[in-house]
UniProtKB/TrEMBL annotation:
It comes from the Bacteria. InterPro entries: Glutaredoxin-like (IPR008554), Thioredoxin-like_sf (IPR036249). This is Glutaredoxin family protein. It comes from Tahibacter amnicola.
Length: 75
């Protein structure tokens, strides 16, 4: 997977972010941070967060289709 979406179960913003990523046609893995104390510490107040595993870049919420497109285009 080239992207990870850090999220929580039952988070409507996370569902929105997943829908935007899916609409953009990218493959991503959803990771529930509630299952990992270290991830919860790192991402707890920032979720949803889309991480590019190749570059390490992260896109914090809030984002929309245009900002997601800029993120996917790279630096």
């Amino acid at each position: 997977m080239a992207y990870i979406l850090y999220s929580l179960d039952d988070c409507h913003l996370c569902e929105e972010a997943a829908a935007l990523a899916a609409a953009a046609g990218i493959a991503f893995e959803s990771v529930d941070i509630g299952d990992d104390a270290a991830l919860d510490e790192r991402y707890g107040v920032r979720i949803p967060v889309l991480r590019d595993t190749a570059s390490g870049r992260e896109l914090d919420w809030p984002f929309d289709s245009p900002s997601l497109a800029r993120f996917l285009a790279g630096p």
